[in-house]
Amino acid sequence: MTAREGSLEAPQRHTLATANPLFWDEAALNQELHRVFDICHGCRRCVSLCTSFPTLFDLVDNSPTLEMDGVKTEDYWQVVDQCYLCDLCFMTKCPYVPPHEWALDFPHLMLRAKAIKFKKGDTALRDKLLSSTDAMGKLATIPVVVQTVNALNKTPVVRAVMDSALGIHKDRVLPEYTGAKFRAHAKPNAGFPVKHGQRTPGKVAIYATCYVNYNEPGIGHDLLKVLAHNEIPARLVEKEACCGMPKLELGDLDAVERLKNVNIPQLAKLAREGYAILSAVPSCTLMYKQELPLMFPDDADVKAVGEAMWDPFEYLMARHQDGLLKTEFKQPLGKVSYHIACHLRVQNMGQKTREMLQLVPETTVNTVERCSGHDGTWGVKSEFFANSMKIGRPVFKAMANNTPDYISSDCAIAARHIQQGMGDTPARKEHPITLIRLAYGL
Fold first, then answer.
1. What are phi and psi of 66, to 5 degrees?
2. Cα dihedral angle (153, 155, 157, 161), rounded to 10 degrees?
């Protein structure tokens, strides 16, 4: 039988078969890694996406046979460690994803390898700490402690120690923590009448996320102002924990399930009450839309939450289509360099943020659709920092085109990474929802 060269059908994601004992079998894993790596070596279409693929191809090209049979099994982990699960290879590049008979899912194969590695106890303390966003956030935002943490994170001597002792690169600009957490100070307005649209629920619940709550609460406050300006009743999710994406990227699937068990009952109740659930961090939105449904396909509550979860601009542009969005913007934004985050692209909803920014008069949007190279914690680590800057270099250059007034990304961490990579720039870094708040004149 002749194998097809690529596929014209839409990609189909298979569920994560963690209940199958073969999922955890390292010999079976290595066999599948060899199969997939051999196909990737013969294709090489994803070479520009991240450093996993150049690492793989270098291993093959430097092997005695110039084929996968010349690559040592223990070297497979070099490829796994370079993957930060952006999903772009599966969603945008690979011609052999299901329903193709070869059924490649490179990100989920890397996730399986990471899960086995974690289960074996081969995960560094640093990685466990960095992925514990709730615990770190609660500790770092204690009054008095927060000022000390922020000051130490900017002290060269301390950063050198963090680099050598923990493996957190001394040159990575780290986000500050806030002493005024979003959830403690948010003032959602639930008093507006509910106006359902053909495409949109007329009431919203905000899932704050760790980053908005502990690092940049202004994003959450601006989202609430934009919703209130459009007379959309809003409330906060009553109780929330980390979405689990950092633990997923680590391969700690047990922690993902524990966090799911905290969050899903709260969110499912809201979903069944007819709320649109909004999350201003693409990775968190993706976790509920895609990753948890693939991990727990038989959980009705997980499915309900996935269907109720929206990216803010996905929701706002759907409101616009329903004729329920105010478009009387008072302030032009000038030139905006806008970066589309990887975890936003793979939600397959189009460029909703760009579309809304383009509604603002006298505003030019330079859209950059390429991975910035940071990931949640990957670009913070000493061994990956140089690669994260290398991957981001084309993005830094593209974002600087035409001397923008603003640089922006739906992923606030990516925006920080881009700002660092651009170096000295007069452009202001603002989240897209903040730009809309400014454009409204709020």
1. 65, 20
2. 0
33 token code pair: 């890694």
DSSP secondary structure of 169-219: -TTPPPPPP-SS-HHHH------SPP---SSS-S-EEE---HHHHHT-HHH
Q: Is 358 exposed, middle or buried (0-12, 13-18, 19+ CB in 10 A)?
A: middle
328-440, which class in CATH?
alpha beta
pLDDT of 4: 64
pLDDT of residue 374: 86
| DSSP 3-state of 54 | helix
Tokens of 294: 């693939």
- What is the C-alpha to C-alpha distance for residues 30 and 330, in angstroms, rounded to an integer? 58
Query: Which amino acid is residue 401, in one-letter code?
Result: N
Q: Which tokens in the block code for residue 306?
A: 């996935």
Distance CA 398, CA 411 (A): 17
Question: Are 174 and 380 within 8 A, CB to CB?
Answer: yes
- Start-to-end CA span in the chain (Å): 64
Q: Residues 270, 308: contact at Cβ < 8 Å?
A: yes
Tokens of 141: 């935002």
Strands (E), 279-409: 309-310, 334-339, 363-368, 406-409
Domain locations in the chain? 21-119, 125-166, 182-318, 328-440
pLDDT at 319 over 90: yes
Question: Quick check: 258 and 189 in contact, CB under 8 A?
Answer: no
Both tokens of residue 317? Answer: 């542009």
Q: How far apart are CA 107 and CA 79, in angstroms?
A: 11
Given a cut of 70, is residue 2 above it in pLDDT? no
Residue 262 pLDDT > 80, yes or no?
A: yes
**Residue 382: both structure tokens together:** 């000493």
Q: Summarize pLDDT for 88-137 with one digit per residue, the tens.
A: 888 888 999 999 999 999 999 999 999 999 999 988 888 888 889 888 89
